Amino acid sequence: MAERIRKVKRIFEIEQIMFPFDRKFESGYSFSGESHDFWEILFVKDGKLEVTEDENVYWLSGGDIVFHAPGEFHRLKSSGNTQPKAINLSFVARGNVPLELTKGVFALDLVEQKEFAQIFQLANDFVANGEVEGFEGQEAADSLGAFLLRVCRNNESKQQLSSSNRAEAYGKIVETMHREIYSNLSLAEIAEENFMSVSYVKVLFERYAGVSPKSYYINLRLNEIVRMLSEGMAVREISEKMNFSSPNYFSAFFKAHMKMTPIQFRNLSK
């Protein structure tokens, strides 16, 4: 009889738990968009939220949850004249967190909602207490990791995309920015490619992103530059790939936004 033993392969592990918040948003609340290098979970307990995630605009209501991957732009605002209640929880993971989590909005049933509330409480207690020794952090991390896997296995995302013409137009502009990330296009060129005026593009980004289209495109390109620097690509090679006129101009651009040269950044990230 063959031994019933099988080695467990760990695809990902949660290493840090950060910024647990349980809050109520005022009607009309709007948070300017951001991106960062860690995962963020947004769970809506009550009310309605409009969430922008890269080129997509989603509507979330009570019981819905969305996962923002590292580097993914996201923004939220209160919707439907409600005062939504929501939970935020962020984490850093080593390995490959399932990409299925990034494919839209998930609706949790009552059992899953209760489970996530318990995980949030574990995480909040761990962060608040500043554990030095003990198993509280491991319990919170393992519980959250298991929850993420069950969401992928048991739930299909429901897109809940906004069907408005303006949201669709915004999505097309963002798709263009991602597609042309290496082209170093001007705002006028981006608008022209989508048969829109520069002023209309600015209106769309004020509505759905909370940042200017120029800032959005620059941040998108900076994230790609940071990735290439972290992987050891040469400054001259990055400059050419990102379509800068010269390595010196590229270095000046990087320093203006990152407050350090590409070489200094690479040395810090080693």
Explained architecture:
With 270 residues, the protein is α+β, with helices and mostly antiparallel strands. It has 2 domains: 143 residues, Jelly Rolls (Sandwich), CATH 2.60.120; 105 residues, Orthogonal Bundle (Arc Repressor Mutant, subunit A). 43% of the residues lie in helices and 23% in strands. The protein contains 9 helices and 9 strands. The strands form 2 sheets. The protein has a 5-stranded antiparallel beta sheet with strand order 1-8-3-6-9. The chain has a 4-stranded antiparallel beta sheet with strand order 2-7-4-5, covered by helices on one side. A hairpin with a 2-residue loop joins β4 and β5. α1 runs antiparallel to α2, α3 crosses α5 and α7 crosses α8. The longest helix is centred in the middle third of the chain and has 20 residues. The radius of gyration is 21 Å and the shape is globular. It starts with 11 loop residues before the first strand and ends with a helix.
The fraction of residues in strands falls at 15-25%
Count of the domains: 2
Q: Specify the helix fraction band.
A: 40-55%
Q: How many helical stretches? A: 9
Features of this protein?
single chain; 270 residues; alpha+beta; Jelly Rolls; Arc Repressor Mutant, subunit A; 2 domains; five-stranded antiparallel beta sheet; 9 strands; 43% helix; 23% strand
Summary, kept brief:
With 270 residues, the chain is α+β, with helices and mostly antiparallel strands.
Question: Helix and strand layout, with pairings?
Answer:
Elements: E1 12-24, E2 30-34, E3 39-46, E4 48-53, E5 56-61, E6 64-68, E7 74-78, E8 85-95, E9 105-107, H1 110-129, H2 136-154, H3 165-179, H4 187-193, H5 198-208, H6 213-230, H7 235-241, H8 247-258, H9 262-269
Antiparallel strand pairs: 1-8, 2-7, 3-6, 3-8, 4-5, 4-7, 6-9
